[in-house]
Specification:
Number of strands: 31
Largest sheet: 8 strands, parallel
Number of helices: 15
Shape: elongated
Radius of gyration: 27 Å
Structural class: alpha+beta
CATH topology of one domain: Immunoglobulin-like
Strand content: 15-25%
CATH architecture of one domain: Sandwich
CATH class of one domain: Mainly Beta
Strand order of the largest sheet: 22-21-20-19-14-11-10-23
Distance between the termini: 38 Å
Length: about 650
């Protein structure tokens, strides 16, 4: 039964998944379809030993080897600042197996930053898929980029084709890491703070973000997940429209600014999770442009799609919620590329793990428009995610692999058994509970906060949340739609915020990793998070548009009090072993909801709350008699019988423990 409930929840969630993306921009400038059938080249020259994809420096930066995987191409030239952007001055060597092109360039100045592109088959110019930095003629002039990336190299005048060029710089300013021995929080204790740099601080910069880390540390979150920060199309974006997977987007700051942020997080005891899109690529990616068929019919019914013989991409998407050009993980080059991307960010930036956007899409099982089929157990998807997880763990055995994956329990269990963590969206039930609405289907039932409700046995297998970037805000719904009577109204701001705290008490008490979306802890309810958040009415309040951080919320005593409740609850969760127990019971379907946790160290917890808008009385079972401490109010309760009748006012809640919590 719970499996069926889970699938129903999945169906409701999927409506919002594709909001993570922006419109596709194909950006192709060739119109040629290349035969990618691998052809051997007996007279070819193989890549020198030690050279890897992209740019490999030798001779202390005075020389560099350029290497690109491009099977089926007829000719390849390298052009850039070092040869006055000549399209024919620097021909590249084809390897004997016909799959790669490479060339060594000498007489470079190690202290000079160079730009370059590849010129393919006499018509196409593209950047390097392995570039660690790009220059974007159409977007780098943005005032935000100029402010946060001072001294940015000007777009080279000689590059007259593709408006994106790749960069390399041997003597680029190096970053010296201050914290090289960070120990990641145990996944069972993980509390992830999801944020978008653009909207969290008005400067949308890593430097300002470092200055605000104390706020997150006081809150108690032990991990931060930034929405995608690798290069994406445009600047004003959530980042789910990726084009260069190993280049840091410049809108938020320099490479060393990002490293400074990660270093500061580690010093504060906070892990950094990288939100990454490796399910599809926007059209300005060179991996799309190199093998593009302008005459092919795409998944949206229009013209222009990856060539059927692309070494990385599907011509048509295999699932109902894709937006861009889907990567095909049954193709070995795609797996290799993804593994290289993960390795790069771990080694170069010391990220602590990844959140894979739209992980349901990592499959070649064709579900077409069938959302139900898309969420059933998929052996191909499990195979792909297992391969990627194994690769990541080979680089960093403690790295997190968090999946935006909504599938049946069998699949979630299979992934959890390998240490992967699937998202558990509980926005619908959570908002119903805080608004105080219940229907015949039990819409305010919070049982799904617990992993055992899905038949899953791994405590860290599900990351539960009430809000993410994809949902309407809990407090907005309280204020707009909350239940009321003549004596009590959820629409009242103070009342709604108090109920948000009650919800948080249940969320953070349930064992397993948790996530909160930025400003959840302050009851964010700005109109831009409102009824047109899903873009249904052509409102200007599109959910991917900028939303003000409203730091002035903290001057409101009710919002500040909610922050205090969140901080207490999160610190309790991360500092007391009882919140990782596997010995628990819960009753979460009625107006009065309860959770009971039995700790192995003698610490027991009882959470109780009334989600109705009238007084309710219920018999609450405690593990033992004696004095129980209320860790929310600071008061205590004398439990004279393990079965006690308690009457709670609407919105009243308590987090009791038999010993005071750390």
């Amino acid at each position: 039964m719970m499996k069926n409930v889970y699938l129903l929840l999945i169906g409701a969630l999927l409506i919002g998944i594709n909001g993570c993306h922006k419109n596709n921009i194909n950006g192709d400038n060739s119109g040629n379809v290349t035969d990618t059938t691998t052809k051997t080249n007996p007279t070819g020259k193989d890549v020198p030993t030690g050279a890897t994809d992209g740019v490999t420096f030798i001779n202390n930066g005075a020389s560099a080897i350029f290497d690109i995987y491009a099977p089926g191409k007829k000719s390849m030239y390298l052009m850039g600042d070092f040869n006055s952007w000549s399209k024919t001055a620097t021909p590249m060597n084809n390897t004997k197996d016909g799959t790669r092109w490479w060339v060594q360039v000498d007489n470079l100045n190690p202290s000079t930053e160079y730009s370059y592109q590849y010129y393919i088959d006499g018509s196409l110019t593209v950047g390097d898929p392995y570039a660690h930095k790009i220059l974007d003629k159409n977007n780098d002039g943005d005032a935000g980029v100029q402010a946060n990336y001072p001294g940015l190299k000007a777009f080279p005048a000689g590059a007259t084709g593709n408006p994106i060029v790749s960069d390399f710089w041997y003597n680029a300013p190096k970053y010296t890491w201050k914290n090289a021995s960070f120990t990641k929080p145990d996944p069972k204790n993980l509390v992830v703070y999801e944020l978008l740099v653009r909207d969290f601080v008005a400067t949308h910069s890593y430097q300002t973000l470092v200055d605000t880390l104390n706020y997150i540390k006081r809150l108690g979150a032990n991990a931060i997940e930034l929405l995608p920060v690798n290069e994406f199309e445009g600047n004003n974006s959530w980042g789910y429209n990726p084009n260069y997977m190993m280049a840091l987007d410049k809108y938020y700051g320099t490479e060393n600014d990002y490293k400074t942020f990660i270093d500061a997080c580690h010093t504060a005891g906070i892990a950094v999770v990288m939100d990454i899109v490796l399910e599809d690529l926007a059209g300005s990616s060179p991996m799309c442009q190199m093998y593009w068929d302008p005459n092919a019919t795409n998944s949206d019914g229009g013209k222009g799609a990856p060539s059927a013989s692309s070494p990385w991409l599907n011509q048509l998407r295999t699932h109902p919620y894709g937006v861009f050009n889907q990567l095909d993980y049954d193709k070995a080059p795609t797996v290799t590329f993804a593994e290289d991307v993960f390795k790069y960010w771990i080694n170069e930036y010391h990220v602590d793990g990844f959140r894979l956007d739209q992980a349901n899409g990592y499959t070649q099982t064709n579900s077409n428009a069938n959302a139900g089929l898309w969420t059933t157990y998929d052996a191909d998807r499990v195979k792909t995610l297992t391969t990627l997880n194994t690769s990541v763990k080979s680089v960093d055995p403690t790295a997190y692999m968090i999946l935006e994956e909504f599938a049946e329990a069998k699949e979630v269990s299979a992934l959890a058994a390998q240490g992967m963590i699937s998202w558990n969206d509980q926005n619908g039930q959570s908002t119903q509970a805080t608004m105080s609405y219940n229907d015949s289907g039990g819409s305010w039932d919070l049982s799904s906060y617990f992993y055992d409700s899905f038949g899953i046995t791994q405590p860290a297998g599900l990351m539960t949340y009430a809000e993410s970037h994809d949902e309407v805000r809990v407090q907005f719904k309280n204020g707009a739609y909350g239940n009321l009577n003549s004596n009590y109204s959820v629409k009242d701001l103070a009342t709604g915020l108090q109920r948000d705290g009650m919800l948080a008490a249940f969320l953070f008490s349930a064992p397993g990793p948790k996530m909160l979306w930025m400003f959840d802890e302050r009851g964010y309810d700005d109109a831009s998070a409102g009824p047109d958040y899903d873009n249904k009415n052509n409102s200007t309040n599109y959910r991917t548009d900028p939303q003000p951080p409203l730091w002035n919320y903290m001057t409101d005593p009710n919002r500040a009090a909610l922050f205090g409740v969140y901080a207490h609850l999160i610190h309790y969760k991360t500092h007391n072993a009882v919140f990782t127990t596997t010995n628990f019971t819960h009753s979460l379907g009625g107006a009065i909801k309860t959770i009971q946790l039995i700790g192995s160290d003698g610490t027991d917890v009882e959470v109780v709350g009334n989600f109705d808008i009238v007084n309710q009385t219920a018999t609450v079972t405690f593990p033992s008699t004696g004095t129980w401490y209320d860790n929310i109010t600071g008061n205590s309760l004398n439990v004279s019988s393990t079965s006690m009748s308690l009457t709670l006012a609407p919105g009243e809640y308590h987090l009791y423990s038999n010993v005071k919590l750390q």
